[in-house]
């Protein structure tokens, strides 16, 4: 979980999962099929708004409070009740990788009013990426590959605000790795197996890897409201992403023509 998010799943059988980027026998662990899906914009969307759109206004206030812009907005947004901002966003600022596999899609925010505040939009963007993750999870579940647990890695696990929203939206506990260098540790685990120190990846990971189990647990009340919001997200997802309304593609075509 970082600028984008990569979702990898191990399963002991091959199945066709709509919108997945690939499935490789032994692609993650020998004896299992490794599936990959992804979201091509996650942390990048947060940065687009906090650092790009807001410019220097909120950063100045954040600096006065001794916080980063993201921490400042997160603190304000965390004080809200679920659904209080009245917004729904589609997390397609960099297209949709899974499950629509369409790089020409673009972002959408619905429900803005003159009363909407920066922290409202920031929270809606975080929620949108969590909803996008839930779409991917449900695609696996629907293909007969049940997702039974979540283990998160990457820069975004440093944000309790982001991770709690994900736990509430997914209505599942989320565990996190106990290292800031997940890719390097993964490489070391594979190297240890290649060198013959351990017989296989699970054995090496059991010794070298560390996971903090379930630090983010869903709040039942929040999850119940997120179910209502997710239903609205799905309606917008299909309306704009599955051809019911092709306005996002038409807008891109007009933009491209005007830019030449």
Structure in words:
- The protein has a domain at 41-173 and 217-259: 2-Layer Sandwich (Nucleotidyltransferase, domain 5).
- Helices cover 47% and strands 14% of the residues.
- It contains nine helices and eight strands.
- Strand 2 and strand 3 (33-39) form a beta hairpin.
- Helix 1 packs antiparallel against helix 4, helix 3 crosses helix 4 (118-142) and helix 4 (118-142) packs across helix 5 (160-170).
- The longest helix has 25 residues, at 118-142.
Keywords:
260 residues; alpha+beta; Nucleotidyltransferase, domain 5; three-stranded antiparallel sheet; three-stranded mixed sheet; 9 helices; 8 strands; 14% strand; globular
Overall average pLDDT: 94
Helix-strand sequence: EEEHHHEEHEHEHHEHH
Please state the overall shape, judged from the principal axes of the Cα atoms. globular
CATH superfamily of the domain at 41-173 and 217-259: ATPase, nucleotide binding domain
CATH first level of the domain at 41-173 and 217-259: Alpha Beta
* Strand residues, percent: 5-15%
Could you tell me the number of beta strands?
A: 8
Radius of gyration: 20 Å
Q: What is the helix content?
A: 40-55%
> What is the tally of helical segments?
9
Quaternary state of this entry equals: single chain
Classify the secondary structure makeup into a structural class: alpha+beta
Which regions are unreliable across 5 or more consecutive residues at pLDDT < 50? none
Largest sheet: 3 strands, antiparallel
CATH topology of the domain at 41-173 and 217-259: Nucleotidyltransferase, domain 5
Cα distance, first to last residue? 35 Å
- The CATH architecture of the domain at 41-173 and 217-259 can be given as 2-Layer Sandwich
